[in-house]
Amino acid sequence: MIIGILSIQGDFAAHAAVLQTLGAQSLEVRTVADLRQSDALILPGGESTTQLQFLQEEGLFDAICQFAAKGRPIFGTCAGAILLATHVKNPPQPSLALLDMTILRNGYGRQLASDVFFGPCTLKKDPLEMVFIRGPIIESIAPGITVLAKLHGSPTLVQKNNLLAATFHPELTNDPTVHKHFLSLISNSAPATKSPRL
Fold it and tell me: pTM for the whole thing?
């Protein structure tokens, strides 16, 4: 099982480090060929417009949509969550439109330092640590999307089938809860990952 991590900006190395502590193998993804070697994909933080341009120029935009259609798990954090959303605001921009939700860019302001909060999460008994860096806010979600964590009443971690999105950076904490959950999605989708590569 290989988890691809889009590796053009953002702290993709931190995601890889968390996966390594959990015994999972990762692969830096910069081309369609890299994606074809992956059983799942993480879209990390960074600047969503820059990432979007890269995906379009390298042919990864359509390839990721096909990847999701085959049932392969995708986890987007911060900018990655923006890329997954069907509707992006502040300002509007195109996206992969894989997860039916409306998201507000820079919802927590253009802070230079990270903000740390703790909020309720269905994945664990204790509050979940959430690190926000110019984090987006999920304004609304469509029926069928499950809210796994919240902050001040707003969803911060949501899931639908093979898609997982966080408005915060779980890779910047010492708590592997969210990554463990993503690995469970990959395990549950194992039959899909055995289908022919893209």
Answer: 0.91
Could you give the 3-state DSSP secondary structure of residue 47?
coil
CA distance 64 to 145: 20
Full residue range of the structural domain in which residue 149 is found: 2-193
Domain count, the chain: 1
> Which residue is associated with the tokens 């253009």?
110
Whether residue 117 lies inside any domain: the answer is yes
Q: Please identify every residue annotated as catalytic.
A: 78, 169, 171
CATH code of the domain containing 17: 3.40.50.880
Strand 146-151 with 115-119, pairing: unpaired
Cβ-in-10-Å burial (0-12, 13-18, 19+) of 129 comes to middle
Going residue by residue through the chain (198 aa), what tens digit of pLDDT does each one get? 899 999 998 789 999 999 999 999 999 999 999 999 999 999 999 889 899 999 999 999 999 999 999 999 999 999 999 999 999 998 899 999 999 999 999 876 665 556 788 999 999 999 999 999 888 999 999 999 999 999 988 999 999 999 999 999 999 999 999 999 999 999 887 654 443 333
Per DSSP bridges, beta strands 163-166 and 128-132 are unpaired
Bridge partners of residue 41, in order along the sequence: 4, 74
